[in-house]
Design brief:
Blueprint: E1 2-7, E2 10-15, E3 26-28, E4 32-38, E5 44-53, E6 56-59, E7 62-65, E8 67-75, E9 86-95, E10 98-106, E11 109-117, H1 127-133, H2 142-149, E12 156-162, E13 166-171, E14 187-188, E15 213-215, H3 245-255, H4 264-275, H5 279-283, H6 285-292, H7 298-312, H8 329-351, H9 353-362, H10 385-395, H11 414-429, H12 433-436, H13 448-452
Parallel strand pairs: 5-14
Antiparallel strand pairs: 1-2, 2-3, 3-4, 4-12, 5-6, 5-11, 6-7, 8-9, 9-10, 10-11, 12-13, 13-15
Helix pairs in contact: 1-2, 3-4, 6-7, 7-8, 8-9, 8-11
Length: 487
């Protein structure tokens, strides 16, 4: 929701989320503006907590009862939500090391697998940072903004601009972990966070100086990508060397050549162009086409030619003349049908079907524009994009930082990799468009642009038509600050 707040100690306009809209969370003050992208660094860990018996667990030498939490919910249809009447009972179990996520064995002992989040039961603490963002007297410099952002326990990339400066700060209650642990795999219950207080749900967190931050860097871009070297993603977000922010980086680099300074309309155009780019086509496709070379099979050669033309034009998913079809519809369809087959052809011979299937079930291979039927617009936030890029570079004998322990496509052999790519591409060409683009609640089968389109959720009887796909952010503002206002 958009709000405009003015009063003693508050002067801000922008967006806030219903339920936590006491302050503007993303927007601008009198002479400065700020925004954010979700950062997603790892502030959640899993612990293996030994069981004493079915209802008790061991913590710091004591057997404690597992706390049971239950809540009953019921609902009926209303003007804003026509969901049929129903009810549910929510059940959870809690320990001193977080909520119970499952049960199993660890080194032969029965254990609870618990999940502990550093912001658990401290969700409202971040209001301190937001209140400072909204207070003109508190924000007089980029350093003031960074200090304010450090009060926010959630993981965000924060950006600031005034008439003279730009700045960045990565917020989050990053727990200081026990020596020898990384937080990526379940840890023994004895490997608690440093200075962890289970009664207050607090711990030692990395200090302000260790958070990624910068002031007056020439260009700042972010789109839910990794913050800095050494910062791992959350357990469900395995960052790779390809980020969707690179689509924006490319557009800005083209416009900044020769020392050119961007106008506000040029900046908006860069965002719009990045927002219709297919990340797979921009990063991995040129390498795959290089390996394919000139296929002898006429059908493969024709497909490769379409993909090359699409690559040369910027790999956009766009209908510029609004005739109901993408400008490069055939190339986009081939790419969409090829990607899952490409992943299988590259990785399954080495990893095996079972392991690849487990990885795909945990970490999606593609965050496509349709977003698994949600029609959200947001796309390419995570996927196998970096894995494909790095492995294809290896096959082509191009420089690769930190090579994988194993070579995948063709086991690192160019001819074998080419054969795998040809086979997978041939399979993609045989897939019907109605299978690539299945029907859903708003689109008929085979309707490529419709399946990509962004759908607005109805509010009661108020509806909005679909809009053409664009890789949209949660909130977007274009700001140019030209002076300093009196305090």
């Amino acid at each position: 929701m958009e709000e405009d707040l003015h009063g003693p100690g508050i002067d801000a306009k922008g967006v806030a989320f219903p339920g936590v809209n006491l302050y503007v969370q993303l927007g601008h003050g009198r002479d400065y503006a700020w925004s954010a992208t979700s950062a997603g660094q790892d502030i959640i860990d899993t612990f293996a907590v030994p069981l004493c018996d079915a209802t008790r667990y061991r913590f710091r030498g004591q057997c404690l009862p597992i706390e049971v939490l239950e809540r009953k919910n019921a609902w009926t249809p209303n003007l804003a939500d026509q969901t049929p009447a129903g009810a549910e009972t929510l059940h959870a179990e809690r320990t001193k090391l977080g909520l119970v996520a499952g049960r199993g064995t660890y080194k032969g002992r029965k254990v609870l697998y618990t999940v502990l989040r550093s912001t658990y039961q401290h969700e409202v603490d971040s209001a301190v940072g937001f209140s400072l963002f909204n207070e003109p007297g508190a924000i007089r410099s980029p350093q003031d903004f960074q200090r304010a952002a450090s009060n926010i326990g959630y993981t965000f990339n924060w950006f600031y601009i005034d008439a003279k400066h730009v700045a960045y700060f990565n917020s989050g209650n990053n727990p200081v972990r026990a020596k020898g642990t990384t937080g990526q795999l379940p840890m023994a219950s004895t490997k608690e966070w440093r200075d962890y207080n289970p009664d207050l749900n607090t711990a030692r967190y990395t200090p302000f100086t260790q958070h990624p931050q910068v002031v007056d860097q020439p260009v700042l871009t972010s789109w839910n990508n990794r913050q800095a070297p050494g910062y791992a993603g959350a357990d469900s977000n395995l960052f790779s060397s390809v980020f969707r922010s690179q689509m924006l980086d490319r557009q800005l680099a083209l416009r900044l050549k020769g020392g050119h300074k961007l106008t506000l309309p040029e900046m908006v155009d860069a965002m719009e162009q990045a927002g219709t780019t297919d990340l797979r086509g921009m990063t991995s496709l040129p390498l795959a086409l290089r390996i394919l070379g000139a296929p002898k099979d006429p059908a493969l050669a024709a497909a490769a030619a379409k993909l090359k033309a699409w690559s040369a034009s910027g790999t956009h998913r766009i209908d510029r003349n609004r005739d109901g079809a993408y400008d490069d519809a055939d190339a986009v369809r081939i790419m969409d049908a090829w990607w899952p087959r490409l992943i299988q052809a590259m990785f399954q011979p080495v990893m095996g079907k079972r392991l690849l299937g487990q990885l795909e079930a945990t970490y999606q291979i593609d965050n496509e524009p349709n977003n698994h039927g949600d029609h959200l617009g947001s796309a390419y936030q995570e996927g196998f994009y970096g894995y494909v890029l790095k492995d294809l570079k290896r096959v082509l004998e191009r420089p690769v930082a930190q090579k994988y322990a194993a070579a995948f496509c063709g086991r690192g052999k160019l001819a074998a990799c080419r054969k795998a790519l040809e086979s997978s591409l041939k399979g993609a060409l045989g897939e019907k468009a109605t299978d690539t683009y299945p029907a859903d609640a708003v689109c008929k089968a085979g309707d490529q642009p419709c399946l990509d389109s962004v759908r607005f959720r109805p509010l009661g009887g108020v509806t909005q038509p679909l809009i053409p796909w664009i890789n949209r952010p949660t909130y977007q503002q274009a700001v140019e600050v030209q002076g300093t206002a009196p305090r």
